[in-house]
Amino acid sequence: MSTTRGYAALTAGGDLQPFEFERREVGASDVAIDILYAGICHSDIHQVREEWGPAIFPMVPGHEIVGRITEVGSAVTNFAVGDLAGIGCFVDSCGQCTNCKLGKNNYCLEHVTWTYNSTEVDGSTPTYGGYSQSIVAKADHVLHVAESLDITGVAPLLCAGVTVYSPLTHWGAGPGKQVAVLGLGGLGHMAVKIARAMGAHVTVLSHSESKRVDALDMGADDFVCTSDANALKDLANRFDIIINTVSADIDLRPYILTLGLWGTLVCVGAPGKPYTINGGDLLNQQRSLAGSGIGGIKETQDMLDFCAANNIVSEVEVIDANYINEAYDRVVASDVRFRFVIDTSTI
Ligand code: NAP
Ligand code: ZN
């Protein structure tokens, strides 16, 4: 065991505060990582505030982790000390079920061990996330990170990046496709960059007019401010794919009506409350409503390689650890450009 420092919420909705805890010994199949940066995902806030149901406390959030390998177990062949490495939303899966064998171990049918607010496969040992100085994890759930990328913007790829890359590839974003990105926060801005690099025509649908210039600068072809109720009417039957990243409880109907023939609205945003859907809106144009959750380890590596090849990183505001609570409030107010990343040396 080794002691590490982190930031934890001790109770539901409580402020995050300094917290010391133990990491396990490095086993034969494990690596130890000295964490450099950890992104703040809106899912961290949903879980700290129990917006997805009862959670495990103390909670050290953080599932967008980048750092350097400091130790490798005796059976590890894919990493060496000094390598740049990443960890995303989960740190273990069974490897044997149908989904794991398909590479979709994010949907493991046995037990997904989430990076925090979860338990190891024993069902009792709690997991602690990336708002900390170090972590120990199974090497086959750790990702390789290219040295060429600006390291401060890499951590958000591990959740925000793969969460939009997976549906964009699954639903065929590319040349000739009209992609809309609903909500320009952490996930949304990664969707703009990735969809654009895939060759799609990208429209941002945002309720924040103040984000227009940034959206166009990062590669969007069009920007539509949705706080103008009439703006969406001009987009009727337009899109092939809509990636809905909105964290709040919204009415999907006006957006579904902007889907064209065989268009799909993919929910990745997870407000924790049900949507109301009118079946008639889906039968017209043979539209689909879908969802998507992060991505498997292989597709996470594919996404990191795609981002390295296209020089894509997240737009970040790097913060000290003592700013986390203020950062949470700003994320909820849609006031982040476009991801907060904690410099974990400040913990
Ligand atoms: P974020 O940075 O807070 O972005 C969410 C965006 O939604 C905001 O920037 C804002 O964009 C829009 N929005 C927020 N409140 C709104 C409101 N009341 N009405 C209309 N639009 C609103 O959050 P994030 O980290 O990108 O995460 C987004 C959601 O995805 C969260 O629910 C998170 O839990 C979920 N998530 C899911 C997965 C998955 O695997 N499916 C993975 C990660 C995160 P504009 O200002 O541009 O309108
Ligand atoms: Zn996340």
Whole-number tally of structural domains = 2
Helix content percent band: 10-25%
Query: Overall pLDDT, averaged?
Result: 97
H/E element order: EEEHEEEHEEEHEHEHEEHEHEHEHE
Shape: globular
At the third CATH level, what is the topology name of the largest domain? Quinone Oxidoreductase, Chain A, domain 1
Helix/strand/pairing category: alpha/beta
Count of discrete alpha- or pi-helical segments spanning 4 or more residues = 9
Portion in beta strands: 25-35%
CATH domain class name of the largest domain: Alpha Beta
Biggest β-sheet: count, sense, barrel? 7 strands, mixed
Q: How many β strands by DSSP?
A: 17
Distance between the termini: 20 Å
CATH superfamily of the largest domain: Medium-chain alcohol dehydrogenases, catalytic domain
Quick description:
By secondary structure, this protein is of the alpha/beta class. The chain contains 9 helices and 17 strands.
Which features does this protein show?
347 residues, alpha/beta, Quinone Oxidoreductase, Chain A, domain 1, Rossmann fold, 9 helices, 17 strands, globular
Please provide a written account of the structure.
The longest helix has 13 residues, at 186-198. Strands 3, 4, 5, 8, 9, 16 and 17 form a seven-stranded mixed beta sheet that branches. This protein is 21% helix and 27% strand. It has helices at residues 42-48, 98-101, 160-170, 186-198, 212-217, 253-256, 279-283, 297-309, 324-332; strands spanning 2-9, 16-23, 30-40, 65-72, 84-87, 90-92, 113-114, 134-138, 143-144, 178-182, 201-206, 222-225, 239-244, 259-267, 288-291, 316-319, 339-343. The two termini are 20 Å apart. Helix 3 (160-170) packs across helix 8 (297-309). Strand 1 (2-9) and strand 2 (16-23) form a beta hairpin. It is built from nine helices and 17 strands. With 347 residues, it is an alpha/beta fold. It is globular. The chain has two domains: 2-159 and 313-346, Quinone Oxidoreductase, Chain A, domain 1; 160-291, NAD(P)-binding Rossmann-like Domain (Rossmann fold, 3-Layer(aba) Sandwich), CATH 3.40.50. Zinc ion is lined by residues 41, 43, 63, 159.
